[in-house]
TrEMBL record:
Residues 3-96 form the DUF1330 domain. Gene3D superfamilies: 3.30.70.100. This is DUF1330 domain-containing protein. Pfam families: DUF1330. It comes from the Bacteria.
Length: 96
């Protein structure tokens, strides 16, 4: 079974306090669901049409595990805290 990667990019952060509160809840929720945060922050370098947006990369053992983490009640509570504090894009990509 191929690993899966959850890639989150932040287009805009309008409420840093909400983002900090989200991080306090989402990290443990993701870890409890089997996720491992591999990288987070603003890119050290971008190329071509890359944008210097905050990016988070999380590894899971499978796409199903990544979906279950996102849909878990603990992660949904974290999303409620974030509310409209950030405009983001989350993608789950299967590893090769």
């Amino acid at each position: 079974m191929a690993k899966a990667y959850w890639v989150a990019t932040y287009r805009a952060i309008s409420n840093p306090d909400a983002l900090a509160a989200y991080a306090q809840l989402s990290g443990p929720a993701i870890a409890a669901a089997g996720g491992r945060i591999l990288a987070r922050g603003v890119p050290a370098q971008t190329y071509e049409s890359g944008l210097p947006m905050r990016t988070v990369l999380i590894e899971f053992d499978s796409v199903e595990q990544a979906r279950a983490a996102h849909d878990s009640s603990d992660y949904q509570k974290a999303l409620e805290v974030l509310a409209d504090g950030a405009e983001r894009d989350i993608r789950i990509v299967e590893g090769v």
